[in-house]
Amino acid sequence: MAGEAILETRGITKVYPDGTVALTGVDLVVRPGEIHGLLGENGAGKTTLTKIISGLLPPTSGEIRWKGKAVRFSSPREALAAGIGMVHQHFALVDAFNAVENIALGEEGGGALGPVRAASVRRRLEAIMEESGLEVPLDTPVEELPVGVRQRIEILKMLYREVDLLILDEPTAVLTPQEAEELFSVLRDLAAGGKSVIFITHKLAEAMAVTDRVTVLRRGRVVAVRETGETSPEELARLMVGEELPPLKERAGRAPGKEVLRVEGLTVPGAEGRPAVRGVSFSVREGEILGIAGVQGNGQTELVEALVGLRPWSGRVELLGKALAGLGPGEIAALGLAHIPEDRHGMGLVLDFTLAENAVLGRLKPFTDAFGRLRWGRIFRFAQELISRFSIQAPSPKVPVRYLSGGNQQRLVVGRELSKSPKLLIANQPTRGLDVAATRYIRELLLKLRDEGLAILLVSADLDEILELSDRVAVMYRGAFAGILSREELDRGRIGLLMGGAREEPVG
Fold first, then answer.
1. CATH class for the domain made up of 7-241
2. How far is it, in rounded angstroms, from Cα 190 to Cα 134?
């Protein structure tokens, strides 16, 4: 991998029209045949940098050198023609088309995909698959394929267009552990064959497992470049956040208490008349975290929305022995349920409201007088208590929440929900989009609450989070539970198989 750079950025700076400085003087060097990790907290500039490299955004200043020559791409098509291709987190595939049709779509020359052209595309794809080991079914509609296979089609699309540099943005976010390992194997083979890869991830273990070198961004600047074999997850975490992170506290050894939530045969309608959740049964007890694992889109969202009163459902659900059938979200919350929604912007906050206003959303009664007027002094005192108790970084309770960082927005949502002194907390993707430090804070808090006796239902697409926090794990696949495992049975490989559709008898 030694030798001249295939890609080099020199002093790349990006300032958006509103004055936001996303990148400042970024230098990046990617060598031929190298898997180069791009690390950084949310907002560090990773996506902006790769959008500039792949032609989606122009830089404000600075230079891109590709294969030794200065270039400036005005579109992704130009970058692709030069040999740079990017696979985004959200795939650009037509569900009703098969792999051949999707890969031919948008090809230079265009035209209808008649039998002759389809045969030509197929021959080239078969040769690429044999050379790269990237096997996919060519004739199956994409909508019938697992997420991991769809991602392979996106990568094949780039190889079909003969890219020399492949950029992958958080490529394992929707993969099972087995699919992630298969992806790593494919990337290693591509690198061995001379292709270069930029691998964007926030998962330090992945960076250590698959990259050759890493560049760490913080607040739009490069703070370090490391040979992967000469660094550690601890050093990378420190470089990303600018400080040393303490280890996660040990969980207390305690037996769960009484049953708080009981769910029996829960079925939730989904799209096109098909159930999104199919007859699941489980319970959550005091002092227990039940984790729900699974690739996103297997019914987790619908399950949570049914439990908090936002979707119709059938079956039986009881909270502290009280049946929830027919109750609305407010009535369920009054029984002792708190909810951290997966989309804090869409469901948890009103971005143009102040911190103080968001602190009392959905819970105005304690903050009004006998005539229904808001008692602003009490509201501001309460907001200040949340700021102090949950270490929310904000200039005052009067600041609109859109100006808070993602981590501080999440702390506000968590603080507001916990101020209700709930008996059950449903935490849906509680650390999604958060940086390393904010993620650590939320996970520490969930363990502390569990040790204090709170019943917690944790839904997360992050398997590391599930394994780190859960006392038991239920794995969802296509709306049903493939199995429920005790902590003693938790094993990454076993959970990965269940996430991919294997089944076993639940244990409790």
1. alpha beta
2. 10
Other residues' Cβ atoms within 10 Å of the Cβ of residue 328: 12
Residue with tokens 């009703």: 96
d(CA 56, CA 169): 14
CA distance 196 to 313: 49
> Is residue 487 within 8 Å of 169, Cβ to Cβ?
no
How far apart (Å, rounded) are the C-alpha atoms in residues 491 and 428?
A: 22
Check if the beta carbon of residue 124 is closer than 8 Å to that of residue 160: yes
One pLDDT digit (tens) per residue for the chain, 508 residues: 445 899 999 999 999 887 888 999 999 999 999 999 999 876 788 989 999 999 999 999 999 999 999 999 999 999 999 999 998 877 788 888 999 999 888 665 555 567 778 888 899 999 998 888 888 899 999 988 877 888 889 899 999 999 999 999 888 877 778 888 888 999 999 999 999 999 998 778 889 999 999 999 988 999 999 999 999 988 988 888 776 656 666 666 678 899 999 999 999 998 777 899 999 999 999 999 999 998 878 899 999 999 999 999 999 999 999 999 999 999 999 999 999 998 888 889 999 999 999 999 888 888 998 888 989 999 999 999 999 988 888 888 999 998 887 788 999 999 999 998 999 999 999 987 777 777 888 999 999 999 999 999 999 988 888 989 999 999 999 899 998 998 888 888 788 888 877 776 544 4
For residues 208 and 464, what is the distance between their CA atoms, to the nearest angstrom? Answer: 15
Exposed, middle or buried, 103 (CB in 10 Å: 0-12/13-18/19+)?
buried
Give the up-direction half-sphere exposure of residue 119: CA atoms within 13 A in the CB hemisphere. Answer: 3
* Lookup result for tokens 């040979």: 227
What DSSP designation does 327 have?
-
Report phi then psi at 30, rounded to 5: -120, 130
| Distance (Å, whole) CA 466 – CA 470 | 6
87, 54 contact by CB (below 8 A): no
Answer whether 0.85 is exceeded by the pTM. Answer: no
CATH number of 246-336+423-508: 3.40.50.300
Name 448's Cβ contacts closer than 8 Å, sequence gap at least 6. 249
Give the separation between CA 72 and CA 137, rounded to whole angstroms. 37
Q: For the CA atoms of the chain, what is the radius of gyration?
A: 25
Nearest to 481 by CA among 272, 275, 282, 270: 282
Both structure tokens of 288: 């227990």
The whole-angstrom separation of Cα 114 and Cα 14 is: 44
CATH 3.40.50.300 residue ranges of the chain are 7-241, 246-336+423-508
Residue pair 35/197 in contact by the 8 Å Cβ criterion: yes
